[in-house]
SpoIIE family protein phosphatase
Amino acid sequence: MAEPGVETRTRSSVITARAAATFEPVGRSVATARAFVRDTLQGWGYTDVVDDAVVLTSELVTNAVIHAGTAADVLCLRTENGVRIEVADRYPEREVPLQGSGRFDTSPDRENGRGLLLCAALASRWGVDYSPTRKHVWFQLDLPERPVGTRSAGPVLPTDLLPVADERVRVAVTQIDRNGTITAWNEDAEHLFGYAADQVIGKPLGDFAAWPHTPGIGTGIAEALRLSRWEGSYGIRGTDGRVIPVYASHLRVRDTNGEPSTVCLLVRDYERAILQSPPRTPVDSSKESRSSDPFEVFIGSPAPDDLDGLLQRTVERARDMLDGDAAFLLLATDDETELEVRATTGLPSARQRFARVPVEAAGTGRYSSARMPAVHEDLAAVPGAVPLLNGTGMRSVVTVPLKVEGRLTGSLGVAAEAAGRYSNEEALRLQFAADRIALAVESARLGELERLRRGSLSFLVEASDLLAGTLDRDQTLALMAQMTVPTLATWCAVYTIADPTSEPYLSYVLHEDEERIDGLKALLSKIAPPEPVPSPGARVWTAPADAAHQAALRTSMRELGLGSSPLSSGIGTTLATAAAVGGETVVLPLVARNRVIGMLTLGKPSDDHFRQEILELAEDLSRRAALALDNARLYSERMAISQSLQRSLLPPGLPQIPGVEVDVIYRAAGEGNEVGGDFYDLFPIHDNAYGFAIGDVCGTGPEAAAVTGLARHALRLLAREGFGGPAVLERLNAAILDEGARSRFLTLLYGELWPQEDGSAVLKVVCAGHPLPLRLRQDGTVEPAADPQPLLGVMDDLELYEQTVTLDPGDVLLCVTDGVTERREGPRMLGDDGLAEVLTTCTGLTAGAVTARVMRAVERFAAEPASDDMAILAMRVPEPHHD
């Protein structure tokens, strides 16, 4: 049964059209239901009741799909007097709040009270119907009573007060399909913009429209074309390249097949009165009393749910309220020292967006009136009083502050091209509107700021991880640029400073459009780099924009001097580069360990600005990037020193020994090839006598490297002084012990070789704690070629002896370090026996083939990379050739 005060049936009326849809119990269905009702009523021409119908439908569908968790059926019925909308769900047992009783809870937070509460407030009639399986809530909205054929009427105005238009008013009519492509273009459009229909049909409207919003922020042209109805200003680029300001009215329609498209009516911007809808006024006092929220009275319902949409709606409503030509809204920074342009209409917003002006300072060229309402009757008399309007042609302006709890949060202004348009009365009206929306704007701004800060934190965490993952200088430079473009800037350049006496060097350039990189790099190479100032924060650098402008001007003048000759491709590149760097450019110092090691330069395209939050994020990034770049520099220097020292510890080359083949393979283990470890040498002592050595110093690093260098150079010096093998090693042992705490024990195989006339070779070897050399005979037998003796660097008194080995033709002497014999795979080790087994397969091979086979066997023995240095020295006496 129906509750008292709730009507359960409508008055008898003829239904002339109906539309129905079902929405699943998911969150996005609420927005889809709103769009369905809005499109349906717009298509029926019931624009006067669209807003109320959308609000009520949104609440009722929310109750069904969100709170009740069931599907919602929405039915729209058109009658002669208005529209009836029914919303049904599958939850009939839910309680109906009673109007006029104690059970009628007016709290909007109650999930089952708000929708019906709004029905009672907004609908002409409403009711609730029950069935065994469903519950219907319906409401009726009656059309306002107006004389037939009259939407609204205005007073009779004197002729001189009527809006100005050309001799013949032209209205461009275009139609845009669901993909944003132009499908119709009338004669007036051809006349206004210069394009014939066949030049534009089939192309995106975005190719010709100069949209006033920054891409990716707020409502763009693609979003506007999907709205049911939209009005506003933008520009169309004519055939001569100039932007023609237009006022447009968009209406979304669908054809008989259900295919949606958008009809666009466009007039010259100064003829906007032809298309501009008058502000919606309440029909009667009862309707006016239904909305008690002053914010919704000014903004309209539903209010935009994003900050950019809210600000854009605010400036458009403020402009219309005071019948201005332009309006703007600026938001204060956290410290209230600057104002940042966030929304404009009637002004080149792409140029002005995020531009900043001081709140107050001495002089007429400052925004000194931001904290109180101000009226400027003629800006020509006070140049620079409102910097935002410089060069725009605006003459009179009224500005008012946005304040929350006495704190300045922004500034709202309306301007006109004529002087003397505004007085204190308009300032009071605008201030009243600003007071209505200030709290909502500040709340939306704080919400956006919180989302931006969360995103910034995630960005910095990811950037830190990436920068910490490399110690390569070039890769660090590339990461710095790729993290800033296009997230923070359109283009980026990194300058590096090698040392305090060096000039900044252009090390890396990146642009979001790869085709612009070469031109940008050429431009920056021709101008002086920015001054390396260590003070933190971003500072503006105008040199790139100035240089690009001058280059474009010179190129254009040269091309114009060619007369009828076709333009060369050079002007296109120059102009494109000028546009790429024509906006704001900032420089951030890269400071690490109290020294400026470079500069990070970020740029925007023509007439664009950075927002303060982006600059703060860039500053955080620059500090992390500077430390990563300096770490990469230090690591590169250390690697260069290490590799240079490593090379100095190895012989520059192997001498040619008559009658003996010699080959060496040396592999240093570990990333960066740590100095120290294994070494080898082969050098001439005197005529027909050669010394050779292969050794392994305990440990790695500089201490081991010192012993390695000592050993190699001492061996050469002592051998050339005529000392024999035991004497050479005994003196080397004493020199190592003299190093004291820096000494390291050393295993060393040292020998002297004399090639003989009969084709053999005589060797005298001393094996001091080193893996024994192996001799391979022609018959395939392998045997040690020396006996083990004490290693060096442990005992003072060493008594070493040398052993003589004769290599016959075809014999091979193989010497290795313990990195070869101690090659491991789990518990298995190659060992001396495994090496000997490999060597038995090398009969008849050259010295180079022997070392290669041994190395291949070592690598195949285990899957893991080697953890120790390895040196392999093979000497072979070749067999004589028989003719």
Notes: The two ends are 124 Å apart (CA to CA). The CA atoms of residues 377 and 420 lie 4 Å apart. DSSP finds 21 helices and 34 strands in the chain.
